[in-house]
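Escalation from tier 1.

The customer reports that the assembly of two entities below gives different structure tokens on two consecutive runs. Tier 1 could not reproduce it. I'm attaching the input and our single run for tier 2 to review.
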Amino acid sequence: MTLYLLKRLAVLLASTAVAAVVVFAFMALLPGDPAEIALGVNATPEAVAELRRQFGTDRAPVAQFLDWAGGLLQGDFGTSYVTTAPVGPQIADRLGVTAVLVLGGMILALVIAVPLGTFAAVHHRNLLGAAISAVSQVGIAIPAFLAGILLVFVFAVQAQALPSGGYVPISENPAEWLRSLLLPWSSLGLVQGAVLTRYVRSAVLDVMREDYLRTARAKGRGSTGALWRHGLRNASIPVVTVLGLQLATLLVGAVVVERVFVVPGLGDLLLNGVAQRDLLLVQGVVMVLVAAVLLINFVVDVAYHLLDPRLR
Amino acid sequence: MRRIGIWIAVGGLLLSTAACGGGDAGTGGDGGAPAAQTLSVGFVAEPANLDFTSTEGVAIPQALLVNVYEGLVKLDQNGEIVPLLAEKWEVSDDRKSYTFTLRKNVTFSSGAPFTADDVVFSLERLKTDWKLKIAAQLDVIDTVEKTDDSTVVVTLERPSNGFLYTLATRLGAMFSRTGVSDLANKPVGTGPYVLGSWRRGDSIELKPNPTYWGTKPSASSVTLKYFKDATAMNNALLTGGIDVISNVQAPESLQQFADPNRFQTIEGTTNGEVVLSMNNGRPPFDDKKVRQAVRHAIDHQALLDTAWAGRGQLIGSMVPPTDPWYEDRTGDYPYDPAKAKELLGGKTYDVKMRIPNLPYAVNSAQVVKSQLAQVGINAEIEPLEFPARWLDAVFTQADYDLSIISHVEPRDMNIFADESYYFRYDNPEFGELLAAADEGTEEEQTELRKQAAKLLSDDAAADFLFLMPNLMVAKKGITGLPKNAISESFDFTGLAKQ
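Tier 1 run:
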């Protein structure tokens, strides 16, 4: 197990390093010059050249990369040209918001999916099980942003019960914080919950057909007891895979939901950064997202090992 | 029984969500006692930083000028220049020397007193520290001298009508000698507001300046809230999240706010001429006849009705009606497709229309395309990401045939005088008219600028689609909103809630 962990860790570090190179290279491909954009329609060529020198974007790409990567190793993301503020704290700030948004959505998805999916599997032959299955199908077809727009229309514009958007830090007002996140959480959670319900259902169905479960029942456990004791752990293996993938998708896909709900998260920061060609900021955000996705995969792989003794 | 149990659980979850919010519904809309007025105004563009001496973008002066920074003079709602930090000024007979008498007992928000030294400091910084090309508009300043603590004499190289006007823009903002170390994050000015907090990506809060020399604002806090999405901004007003939409991005959405018991719609004018630019520097639009054909081919009223729900004004040249030299030039090129075809001599052209991906440009481009097609000009629309791609391709490299953009700077006819500007319009006579206008008396200026605007229109240097309206929606009872957006700032000084 230790060896496996070490191996897996080495892969994680190597992928992160490769990702850094790729992220940097992509930034170089982005059309548009940050100095030109900062000065806009009123720039003189001399001022643009001077600003490029200040930004350091006039140097060779390799020098810029080494500078940036060296900083990253020390936890320094550099200082944004555009905002003149250090990039690291900005990302940390926004990452906190996005993490709360995504984790909240994920928890809601799990709370919906695990009981509903299991229920639908156990009762797959009767009407209610089929109904859950059908409703979750509809959920899959609705993208999170559309769910968001519909939720805003119903709960904010029509019922005037919840704010249509905006974000209040928890330190400022915990009640408002909760209120401002209910709709974003729901729009992510309901849709992801629908997707996850399908996976839970089919995983549980698969497990229910296994011989060991029949044996457990034969030895006198009730069908629920057998499923609870022997089935769910095995059923959770494919679900954890999907969960990892979903988490990664949510983290990156939160951009759209953040926009609908005016939540100042990482996605919003990324969009702003791209619009203003704040390259260091964009590089930093993308790097954090890539690292997060790699880390999630790492955790999922390790989780397999814990859940499935055959892999040990 | 178990089945029902789950449904009850799900239903309960939904109900409690709704109920939890429902309980707060009454207070959500109009929180805050009348004594502590907190107002929030929705905007589209958030400043990248707060330093308008080094970073372009309308969002910075919009938030800070007049509110946080003040100049010696400011523009009022009619476009008149009125005193601000200067109590009065005298102009010498040769109109080259301006003697400003400064208001006394004015302090910066840092506590430092505002004196003649700060005026000298601020105006000299234009040449040494400003990075934007617009700073050159005050190159006409020869010397700035302090006579005593409250008197400053500015001497010009030549008489200039634009000088005083330019002082009312961000270029005339007064900085403290001890307050410019971190302009990007910590503005220090003499204005009625100071920067309260800045939640990046979300909002900027302005607080009243407790040591302000003039009438203190009645609002205890004004929040500028930034929305990238027009629908999100509309929803925020509908649900009480904000009090004002500062600039409606989709006029067709106005019907949501039709209820006069809840909302008021305010329509004024701006300096934003929506220009159909034609590249005068390369075929086919280097040919005046082709440009004239374009102007005849476009039915401007139909375009305005379709693209911007009929809101706004037709102009015909690069002058908004709030400038003293405005003349109605919409009759110069009446809609006449037959005439346009005749000017084209039966030829057809294929051109590239490279537009910014902004709502007004995208809407207008569709109409322009279909109208030009009827006279034999086939325009291929290519939307470019704004600002990055558009600035690079169209503005900097002038690699385009047609484009559409709103030129929002005040009194910006002079951009046509620069032959390297992306219009590539090159008529020395136009530049001479403007130069003479700047040096002449006020009457001469008005007369000469009228001629310049006419020349621009006759030459068909570009087509002027319409003047962007200043469309605001506010909750009922909000007063003191600036109706016309004709200066660079969004003036919050009179904003109040009844």
